[in-house]
Recover the amino acids of this structure.
C-alpha cells in the first residue's frame, strides 16, 4: 500500500483546521465567546443592514438548523435580535444588539492578533500562493 494518509491533502488540511479552530476557540472562550459566535457577530457587524438568517448561514458556511440553534443561544444572551420581515412573516432578519456590537468590537482584536500570529514568518507571496492553490483545490471539488 503506497498511499500515506499523513501526506494526504484532505487529512492534512482537516487536521490543521481543527488545530487552528480549537486554538482560536480557546482564546475566545477566555472572553466568554466561541469561534462560531464570533464569526456570526463579525458578519452581522460588517453588514450595513440586518441579514436574513439563511444569508448569514450561507456566509458562515453552516446549515440552517445549526445556525438556528446558535441564534437561539445568542438571542438568549442578548447579543442579537430577530426582526420579523414586514413583507414575509416567515422570514427573520438578524441584527446585533448594542451588547452584541460591543462584544464583537471587544473580540475583534483577538481575531486580528490570532491571524497575525498564524501568518508570522509567512510572506505576502506565500499567502497569495496558499489562496491560489486552495482555490484550485476547491474548484476541483466542484468539477468532480
Amino acid at each position: 500500500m503506497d498511499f500515506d494518509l499523513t501526506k494526504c491533502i484532505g487529512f492534512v488540511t482537516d487536521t490543521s483546521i481543527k488545530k487552528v479552530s480549537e486554538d482560536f476557540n480557546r482564546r475566545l472562550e477566555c472572553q466568554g465567546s466561541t469561534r462560531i459566535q464570533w464569526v456570526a457577530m463579525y458578519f452581522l457587524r460588517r453588514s450595513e443592514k440586518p441579514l436574513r438568517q439563511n444569508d448569514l448561514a450561507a456566509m458562515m458556511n453552516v446549515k440552517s438548523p445549526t445556525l438556528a440553534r446558535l441564534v437561539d443561544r445568542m438571542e438568549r444572551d442578548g447579543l442579537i435580535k430577530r426582526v420579523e420581515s414586514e413583507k414575509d412573516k416567515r422570514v427573520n432578519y438578524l441584527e446585533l444588539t448594542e451588547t452584541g456590537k460591543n462584544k464583537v468590537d471587544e473580540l475583534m482584536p483577538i481575531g486580528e492578533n490570532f491571524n497575525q500570529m498564524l501568518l508570522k514568518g509567512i510572506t505576502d507571496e506565500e499567502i497569495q500562493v496558499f489562496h491560489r492553490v486552495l482555490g484550485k483545490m476547491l474548484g476541483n471539488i466542484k468539477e468532480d
In short: Residues 134 and 140 are 10 Å apart (CA to CA). The beta strands are 51-52, 80-84, 92-96. The chain has one domain: 5-143. The domain at 5-143 is CATH 1.10.10.10 (Arc Repressor Mutant, subunit A).
